[in-house]
Specification:
359 residues, alpha+beta, lipopolysaccharide transport protein A fold, 2 domains, seven-stranded antiparallel β-sheet, two-stranded antiparallel sheet, 9 helices, 19% strand, elongated
């Protein structure tokens, strides 16, 4: 059986890497044709286009479509095995269907490990370079918030800025309030607040500070300029599109912890991303078994019928993932459930299909 195991593993991985390579080439060609105007208009250097953008684009693209092409690869070569009656011969020789699934499990676990590493460690690194290029030569990823910025920086502490200039790291008409329950105990107001990169502190100008003690007495101080430490980052005051793309597993965890400590609800989108990075590799294994169960039976429709069913199932999986993400982001669905519900549903489908597969 070892010879057959290696044969299936080689066919599985060979078909996958061949298919994904062809698609990468096609996508890059279309992407170049779509963005060539931006490259020329913004005078992007040729080597920067090749190295900074497209080479760093490849890992992102592989991980984006790894579920779909794992499924297609399994269905494609397994349907061919079934069509040539090779599966019948293997099972007739006394090999159980569960034993027949072992090489598929090995290959899918290998791809799942690759996906986990890409999503949690390699892609965040490559995205740093790719997004710098994109922000410089294609589209602006950093965007100043509109006027009247209200955010919570820690429990019972809120800040306000009329607007914030990210290029100069300066906010205008700034105020900060601290509450004890419903009672105001501290208020800072300033004409502007600027981040000092040398001192790693905020510099406030024309400030007014009002403190209310436990007896209800007010203490007021004011001045022209002052350096102060506030639990506030410049990135809290402006938007960075898809900021989590640059965060590895540990950075994502640290960001989520920090946002929870602040009492902010921004963490939900990042927590969904974290669990999706964990659930994605598992989906590869689940979809592999569904693919084997679907395509191991010899049918009159052949590969075409199997591919049609397989692609429909894969896109329905992606659709379920998108729906659950929306419900978790804007509703009350738990981020963990949002990431794992599609896997749970398709695992049940996979178990059912394997039980019905020819033995």
């Amino acid at each position: 059986m070892k010879i057959i195991d290696w044969y299936i593993i080689k066919k599985f991985l060979g078909t996958f890497f061949y298919a994904i390579t062809l698609l990468i080439v096609i996508v890059i060609v279309f992407d170049v044709s779509e963005n060539v105007d931006s490259f020329i208009k913004n005078k992007a250097p040729f080597m920067a286009i090749v190295v900074d953008y497209y080479i760093n684009f490849i890992p992102y693209f592989i991980n984006l479509f790894i579920y779909l092409f794992t499924f297609i690869s399994v269905i494609f070569f397994t349907s061919k095995l079934a069509g040539d009656t090779e599966i019948i011969a293997i099972l007739s020789s006394g090999v159980s269907f569960k034993r027949f699934l072992l090489p598929y499990l090995i290959a899918s676990v290998f791809l799942a490990i690759i996906s986990f590493y890409l999503g949690n460690f390699l892609i965040p690194k490559t995205n740093e370079v790719r997004r710098v290029f994109k922000n410089t030569y294609m589209e602006k990823l950093t965007k100043d918030n509109e006027t009247n910025i209200h955010i919570q920086i820690q429990p019972n502490t809120f800040v306000y800025a009329n607007r914030f200039n990210s290029d100069e790291s300066i906010g205008f008409k700034f105020s900060m309030e601290q509450l004890d329950g419903q009672k105001l105990v501290y208020k800072l107001m300033a004409d502007n607040i600027k981040w000092d990169t040398v001192k790693n502190k905020w510099n406030i100008k024309n400030y007014y500070i009002r403190t209310i003690d436990s007896l209800g007495q007010q203490h007021i101080s004011m001045g022209d300029e002052k350096d102060t430490t506030i639990n506030l980052k410049t990135t809290d005051l402006y938007k960075i599109k898809e900021r989590f793309e640059e965060m590895n597993y540990y950075q994502l965890n640290a960001f989520i912890t920090r946002e929870k400590q602040k009492g902010s609800i921004v963490y939900k989108k990042y927590e969904i991303e974290k669990h999706k990075r964990m659930a994605g590799p598992v989906a590869i294994i689940i979809l592999t078994f569904i693919g084997v169960a679907l395509s191991s039976r010899k049918v009159r429709g052949g590969i075409g019928l199997h591919l049609g069913i397989g692609i429909a199932l894969t896109f329905s999986y992606i659709m379920f993932m998108q729906f659950s993400t929306v419900f978790a982001t804007y509703g009350n669905l738990s981020p963990i459930l949002a990431a794992w519900i599609p896997n749970i549903i398709y695992m049940i489908i996979g178990v059912f299909l394997i039980q019905k597969a020819p033995k």
